[in-house]
Amino acid sequence: MASGISAKHGLLTTKCSVFHSLQRKILPHAICIQRPTEVKCLRASTNSTIESQHNEKYCIDIVRSRDYDGFVSSLLLPEDARRSSLALRAFNVELAQVKDSVSQKTIGLMRMQFWKTTVEEIYRDDPPVQPVSAELWRAVKKHYLTKRWMLRIISEREKDMEDRAYRNLQELEAYSDNTQSSLLYLLLESLGVKDVHADHAASHIGKAQGIVMCLRATPYNSSRRKVYLPMDICMLARSFSKNIPSSAFPAFLQTVVLEDYLQRVQRVDFDVFHPSLQKRNPLIPIQLYIRSWKKTY
After folding, report:
1. DSSP state of 266
2. Helix or strand holding residue 139 (H, E)
3. CA distance to 47, 126, 130, per residue, from 43 (Å)
């Protein structure tokens, strides 16, 4: 009986060995077999990750090349808001470059309409397949950003397609408030800041930033009227700093760039065409870091 069991056991072992040998020959590289649905999910997850990385890189590249000061400022934000900040700035760059990239006003208005439709679709959870749109949708979902500020930026950029000089300082202030201040409101929301003093400061800083940007662009677009430095606006914005929560300060880091430009233009007797003003200050990143460490603007 024992010998019979031993013989059967030996035969069984031999059959198992032959089976495994045949399996290795037929499926030499098989480690595990996945169901089709599992493979599909794995591919979808991988593709989604790659696409997300591509979208983020696109926003980083466009902001770094077209809004370097904003790019450096975004790097100093808390990690939770950094990616959303770059998405918002990429959105702003896309709108800002429409006017200079089209030969006909009609084409520019069509692009503005595209962004209006895009914002509406983002808030319906159906963003178009476009890197900035996808990143903007991610930021909206994460921080519950206000749609009104985005639409206000688009509408003001759309009106600016008229390509005419600002009639007075008040008109330039209104344009700056609707574009730059609206962007700052969105940055504050991405930081989780809801504070009336921070909003008030953002309004004045946005106006000052828009005016300084207009001055910096004067050599490039000399057909625009020369506007005098708004020193009163800058001083008024700074007066609110003592009432602003510390969590809001990162949104206002770019005031370092404004202050640097105002000081440099003053040194050349307010000549906005001076060649030295066309060069980037290499110390700006260090100044931004120091200001972010001190939590002041």
Report:
1. H
2. helix 131-143
3. 6, 22, 20
Instruction: Map out the domains of the chain with their CATH numbers.
Output: 48-162 (1.10.600.10), 164-297 (no CATH)
| Dihedral angle computed from the Cα positions of residues 239, 244, 246 and 248, in that order, rounded to the nearest 10 degrees | -100
244: nearest Cα among 290, 294, 199: 199
Mean pLDDT across the stretch 272-289?
78
pTM: 0.70
**CA–CA distances in Å: residue 177 to residues 4, 69, 250:** 95, 19, 19
pLDDT at 5 over 60: no
Helix (H, G, I), strand (E, B) or coil at 27: coil
Q: Using an 8 Å Cβ cutoff, are 262 and 211 in contact?
A: no
Q: How far is CA 161 from the centre of its chain?
A: 23
- Residue 2: the pLDDT is 43
Spatial distance between the Cα atoms of 260 and 258, rounded to a whole number of angstroms:
5
The answer to whether the Cα torsion of 243, 247, 248, 254 is positive or negative is: positive
Please check whether residue 204 is in contact with residue 236, taking contact to mean a CB–CB distance below 8 angstroms. Answer: yes
Q: Read off φ and ψ for residue 227, nearest 5 degrees.
A: -110, 135
CA gap 211, 225 in Å, rounded: 12
Nearest to 290 by CA among 253, 252, 240, 261: 253
Cα-based torsion angle of the residue sequence 149, 150, 152, 155 in order, rounded to the nearest 10 degrees: 180
Q: How many helices (H) and strands (E) does the chain have?
A: 14, 0
Q: Are 119 and 147 in contact (CB under 8 A)?
A: yes
